[in-house]
Design brief:
With about 325 residues, this protein is α+β, with helices and mostly antiparallel strands. It contains ten helices and 14 strands. The strands form three sheets. Strands 9-11-8-12-10-13-14 form a seven-stranded mixed β-sheet, sandwiched between helices. Strand 13 and strand 14 form a beta hairpin. The longest helix has 18 residues. It is globular, with a radius of gyration of 20 Å.
Length: about 325
């Protein structure tokens, strides 16, 4: 396709024809010439908005884009309603590639029960691979919004599923041939399949019912970055047992191969939660088949401490994600 707005006939057959999921709250949705979307809410409901780009992957970027934005909304205790998309494509992109991306996006939205409400699609010389930015729209009841800043001293700190899931899946897909030089194919395929764990909507729903004080999905910067952001936002300290942080062996192997730190690897699919009764929360999550571990406590003051047997060291501010050292 040529540089500029995607032609109207391409929009109709490769974008709009891929969109099937609808929400009753959406009064005005995607259409030729439409610059806005409109959503109707009840008097006791509030908008919750989030936006994220996908820049660290080239495969399955449509699915990743939806999962990451849905996780942001879920972390706030919101019910996702819809998304607005900006899709930037490099010059020379074939129409079939756009159609495939839209198919991934719609599949992700259908799984989450959200509507693609509108957006912008363009071919441009300023990108060298497809770039998707998603603005997510959700709703929450007044008084039920959960923030990253709500953790209090004495709260238990819980981590769901395993850290590094997204980064491991991306590396296993993007660097498969390199990894096959050391590891068996079945291990690589297992790692590639970690993308099935990327949604945190199920654990968010359980957590909200348990009355948690704060939630934060673990994305760029990995679990170390998420712990720092939770503590910084809430004005608390932390004591975290490093050995309790859940991690899959496939993630350990992939990170060792590339010489990167799994604790600083993008980790969508894992939720960091502060709760008054972390043991109860873990039990409720496990009842729903969601792996979760109580890893430490929130404390008074500003000391953010990582415990590793007899060793005590301070958590440092977030650094650039380890994924960017490889892809």
């Amino acid at each position: 396709m040529k540089v500029g707005k995607v032609p109207e006939n391409v929009l109709k057959r490769s974008v709009f024809k891929q969109l099937h999921t609808k929400r009753p709250e959406v009064l005005l949705g995607a259409g030729i010439g439409e610059d806005c979307a409109a959503v109707k809410l009840n008097q006791d409901e509030i908008f919750v908005l989030s936006t994220d780009p996908i820049t660290g992957a080239t495969q399955d970027i449509g699915s990743l884009a939806i999962h990451i934005t849905m996780n942001d909304l879920a972390s706030a205790g919101a019910e996702p309603v819809g998304v607005l998309l900006t899709i930037l494509l490099p010059e020379g992109t074939q129409e079939q590639e756009l159609r495939d991306i839209m198919g991934q996006l719609e599949e992700g939205c259908a799984q989450a029960g959200v509507q693609i409400m509108g957006g912008h699609t363009e071919v441009t010389r300023v990108v060298n691979q497809p770039l998707i930015t998603v603005c997510g729209v959700g709703k929450a009841k007044e008084g039920q919004l959960v923030s990253t800043a709500g953790a209090r001293p004495g709260n238990d700190i819980v981590i769901t599923k395993w850290i590094g899931l997204e980064g491991t899946s991306i590396l296993a897909k993007e660097k498969r041939q390199e990894l096959l030089e050391r590891y068996p194919a079945h291990m690589i395929e297992t790692a590639r399949g970690f993308d099935r764990y990327l949604s945190v909507l199920p654990e968010a729903a359980v957590a909200v019912k348990c009355g948690v004080t704060a939630m934060h999905d673990v994305t760029e910067g990995g679990i170390f970055g998420a712990l720092w952001e939770l503590a910084e936002s809430s004005g608390i300290g932390l004591e975290i047992d490093l050995k309790k942080i859940p991690i899959r062996q496939e993630t350990v192997e992939v990170c060792e191969f590339f010489g990167i730190n799994p604790y600083q690897l993008i980790s969508s699919g894992s939720m960091l939660i502060a709760a008054e009764d972390g043991s109860l929360l873990v039990q409720e999550l496990q009842k729903q088949g969601i792996h979760a571990v109580l890893v430490g406590k929130a404390t008074k003051g500003n000391d953010r401490i990582l415990l590793n047997e007899e060793e005590r060291r301070f958590l440092e501010p977030p650094r650039a994600d380890e994924l960017y050292k490889v892809v």
